[in-house]
Structure formats: C-alpha cells, structure tokens
C-alpha cells in the first residue's frame, strides 16, 4: 500500500476524538504524513485561527464534518479550508446546543434505567462515544461497545435522535465557507450508490478510507472520473493514531492547489 502523504479526516477533543491540536504535529510525524485535516463533528475547531496552519512542519487544515439528511439516508460531508461564515457558525451553534440537550436526555435515561450516576457534564462537541465511555467507567455492567449495542445505539432503550441539517442546506453552507467539500466514507452507507450520486454536487469524495471489511472501490473511482472529483481520504481517527489511510503525494498536490484557489 502506498504511504499516505496526508490524513484528511481526523477528530480531536473538540468533538469525540482524543487528540488535542498541540499533539497533532507529533502524531502526524509518527504516521509519516505532512498534511492533517481537523474535521470535528458539526464544529469548526476554536483553536485553529486560519484555513491552513503550519505547526512544527505539519500543515494543519481547518475542516469540519457535517452530517446531513437526504431523502434516502444520512450522509457525512467534509469541508476543508474553512473560512467560517456567519451562517455556518449559526448552524454549528444550533447543532451543538442540540447535541448538549440530547446528551442530557440520554444521560437521564441511562441513569434512570441503570440506577447509576455518570461522571459526565455535556459540553459542545459531545457525542454518544463520550456517553459510552462514561457508562463503561461507571458501576454499570457494560463496557464501551455494550453501551452502544444495548443502551444508546440507534433504536436502543436510551437512544435519542438529534437534529440533522438537510443535504442541500449543508452543501450550501459548506460551499460558501470551504474551497473543497467532499463526501466522507461513501462505502459505509446503507446505499452507497445513492450516496455517490450526491457527489455530482460536490468537489471531492473520500477515496482512501480504512473500512473494516473488504470493499470494491470501483464505484468511487467511477464517480471520481464522472464528476472530476478530488480523491481525498483519511483515517477518521478518533484516537492518537493517524495515517491508517490517506491520499498519496500526487493527489495531495492537486488538493493543495484547490485549497489555495480561495
């Protein structure tokens, strides 16, 4: 496998990851990547003050991962080189408040059902992984995965749905703020073909991704050819290990050129 030159899908403590921004350069060097995109869920990282920041020889891209709703399924869009607009920030604020409210409700349901107290105070950026970790660290007889599978996963007794931005609105918000907007992990969705059809309205698609199963990338490659898309990619890291997937240097060069156009 070709060594990735970039990891363009990384989460930090601003959402449900474990890396902080100061820790990113060392993590990038360990992975042998020179470009890292911080793509926290529904949030522009507050500690990145420019679309691209150079820190200790590593290029850190200010990005975002925004979940959107289509008529068929929910998708994740990745925006790169964010120059936040008032409209995007307002939508992020709305979504983060919903995340906090939702987390309070899930926690209340878990505590009432299990008779435990979770050591967790919901803050912007919170997601179900935080709650699952808190359950695993409590007196409840569930580990992290069991908490998802039996308590807070979709359709489980303590599950609470959250608000999702419509696809057209999300694409518009990101296009106004980012020089590159792409579809994340297209082969993870229930209907990959329907997901890939939306790339006609985007700039990029995540071609390089560490799926936990064997996949055939042909549909993604066909979409790239059909719509002249950038082939992005990344590890979707929520831990400290970067570079499990990502584009090679030749692809990163074209991506960099697109970032600099705005």
If you had to describe this structure to a student in words, what would you say it looks like?
The chain is α/β, with parallel strands linked by helices and 262 residues long. It contains eight helices and nine strands. Strands 1, 2, 3, 4, 5, 6, 7, 8 and 9 form a nine-stranded mixed β-sheet that branches. Helix 3 (128-137) packs across helix 4. The chain is globular. The two termini are 32 Å apart.
Q: Which structural traits does this protein have?
A:
nine-stranded mixed β-sheet; 9 strands; 262 residues; alpha/beta; globular; single chain
Q: Which geometry do the CA atoms define?
A: globular
Mean pLDDT, to the nearest integer, reads: 96
Task: Tell me what portion of residues adopts beta-strand conformation.
Answer: 15-25%
Q: What quaternary form is this? A: single chain
The helix-and-strand class reads alpha/beta
The tally of beta strands, per DSSP, is: 9
Q: Uncertain segments of ≥5 residues (pLDDT<50)?
A: none
Q: In whole angstroms, how far apart are the ends?
A: 32 Å
Total helices: the number is 8
Helix proportion range: 25-40%
The largest pleated sheet is described as: 9 strands, mixed
Order of helices and strands: EHEEEEHHHEHEHEHEH
Task: Please tell me how large the radius of gyration is.
Answer: 18 Å
């Amino acid at each position: 496998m070709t060594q990735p030159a970039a990891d363009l899908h990384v989460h930090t403590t601003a959402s449900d990851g474990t890396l902080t921004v100061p820790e990113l350069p060392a993590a990038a060097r360990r992975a042998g990547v020179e470009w890292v995109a911080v793509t926290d869920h529904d949030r522009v990282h507050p500690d990145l003050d420019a679309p691209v920041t150079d820190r200790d020889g590593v290029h850190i891209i200010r990005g975002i991962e925004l979940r959107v709703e289509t008529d068929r399924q929910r998708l994740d869009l990745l925006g790169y080189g964010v120059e936040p607009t008032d409209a995007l920030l307002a939508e992020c604020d709305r979504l983060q408040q919903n995340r906090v409210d939702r987390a309070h409700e899930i926690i209340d349901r878990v505590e009432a059902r299990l008779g435990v107290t979770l050591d967790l105070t919901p803050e912007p950026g919170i997601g179900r992984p935080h709650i699952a970790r808190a359950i695993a660290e409590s007196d409840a007889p569930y580990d992290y995965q069991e908490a998802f599978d039996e308590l807070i996963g979709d359709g489980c007794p303590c599950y609470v749905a959250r608000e999702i931005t419509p696809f057209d609105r999300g694409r518009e918000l990101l296009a106004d703020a980012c020089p590159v907007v792409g579809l994340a992990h297209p082969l993870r969705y229930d209907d990959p073909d329907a997901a890939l059809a939306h790339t006609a309205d985007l700039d990029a698609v995540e071609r390089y991704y560490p799926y936990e199963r064997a996949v055939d990338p042909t549909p993604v490659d066909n979409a790239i050819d059909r719509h002249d898309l950038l082939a992005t990619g990344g590890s979707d890291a929520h831990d400290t290990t970067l570079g499990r997937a990502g584009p090679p240097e030749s692809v990163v060069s074209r991506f960099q050129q697109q970032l600099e156009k705005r």
